[in-house]
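Record format v2
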Amino acid sequence: MTGIELTGIRKRFGETEVVKDLDLSIAEREFLVILGPSGCGKSTLLRMIAGLEDVTQGRIAIGAQDVTWTQPGQRGCAMVFQNYALYPHMSVAGNMAYGLKVAGVPRRERSERVARIAATLELGALLDRKPHELSGGQRQRVAMGRAMIRSPRVFLFDEPLSNLDAKLRAQLRLEIKRLHRDLGTTSIFVTHDQLEAMTMADRMVVMNAGRIEQVGTPQEIYRQPATRFVAGFIGAPAINMFPALIDEDGRAMAPGGWYPCPDAVWALAPGTAVELGVRPADVVAAASDACRPSFTPDISEDVGTEVHLHAHGAGFDLTLSVPAGAPLPTRSFAISFPSGVAHCFLKENGQRAALRHSIPERTEATWPETSLSSI
Amino acid sequence: MKADARRLSVHVPMIVLSLLAVFPVWWMVVTSLKPENEIFSTRLWPASPSLENYAYVLDAIPMIRILWNTFAMAAATATAQVLTGLCAAYALTRWRFRGASVAQGLIALSWLVPFQLTMIPNYVLATQLGLLNTIAGLVIPNAAAAFAVLVLTNAMRSFPKDLIDAARMDGAGHFRVLCEVVVPNLRAPLASLGVLVFISAWNEYFWPLLLTRRIEDTVVQIGLQMFMTQEGNQWGALMAAATLASLPILLLYLVLHRQIIESFMRSGIR
């Protein structure tokens, strides 16, 4: 049993509280990704689990054993660092075997284990090289080998792919996932890259300003964001937000008397200020009419698989994700989207608001097939 | 043409400055080779060079013993200052503790305290501890120095934190991290500091003058003084002794000059 239990964790640097009363359970063999913007406390949290940073308050248990005040080397965790952190004066073999040397493993056994791990990571030909003679990808592989060689109970990854180019990043992402599948070691992966988080995680934790905003599977977090922050942080291009007020019937009314999702009735008091979030891929262009605000196309970005169209409207801007090859509007257009795809967040605290009654998540609304220049 | 002129304008002053720096050393060596009757001649090379001054020096004072004392004292001082500086710098940069910045400020302040202020208490203490006329007495009061701590604290500040964290994750304790990870990667500043402290200890005059009474227990800078008497200075012998005193430092520099300059440049010590 090598699950991890964090209870009431707080971390203060002087007057600044960087982790605020955080509780989290990580299951055995789980691949958990902690995602958040720079400075949200995610790396500090990882370092506290590793033992590199003392907790100000709270308890950390790994495999039912309280390790809150245990030295880093005795926690059974291995860590892969963002800058690889390979010892520059040691060879690849020396780097990988250092932990075993410290643990007093005899030289022959060390060599055998290095050879075995090097074969797994295709590092066999590089064992005598120094870190400065390796490429970024090779260095990261050595760093992973160094972590794997001690057969740790927990792997901790601190943004390990952020210094690599996009192609290598995708390749190593797969390798890490494959290793996790084969070894089944509980892993915590910290990143600020949502693509990494979405593709690698069994479960994700989204952090902001030292607090957990939401814990869930990548699908839950993308489809049911618990807060406005999560909705805005996950998804590229970012979710569209429309300010609105709840009317007497519980429907959200945008400025100008527009009802973006007339079928949705929220369990909120009349007059509550909210924000409606709609993913760019769920918005479709429609012909302008008097009841809906119109938008003017601004910039379009063709990313190959789709086109991101940025548009200005009265009071709010908008991004649409248009299928590749679909006609783009050239002049003012209105928008529509199924009521079920809208997320409603309280303006006051950013929390998600519940619907008073359920509505189908999707109704018919597809990108118009006619040329949008005629809309 | 323009480039040549610019090169010339840089090189000519540098050559003049080099000559100015080398001339006293040259004059010292030349004077040491002059016989008694030629000592005040202004010739750039003696008419009849002789080693009689060297023979006199080796006969008049136990020069080899004195050189050995100086070497032992300088090497021990350099080693001690580097070690204490390293431990202090590691603690100051790696451990978060209450009063860390105050401690560092006090260390920096102690650099400003003149030797004359501490010499009497140090002398009394050394006497009570029975350290008169000993190399230990010469080394111990200088075993820790603010300069060494500050230089190494700066070097440690720019040392990659992740490397130390990686070693701690590998199970290494602080002492092991310091010996096996920090020191091998901090060789440039350690070497330049070691050389600087060695040279400064080699040239130490005042403290050995206070602490050593017997000529066979003293160091080379005090040995030189033996040739400066009330009846007049023995210039030939003095210069021969000074040449002998400079030789080890000169040798050290000749052997290591590339590493010394490189490490000074890399560690930012000028």
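The interface with chain A takes residues 160, 162-163, 165-173, 176, 181, 184-185 of chain B (CB under 8 Å).
Chain B is about 70% helix and 0% strand.
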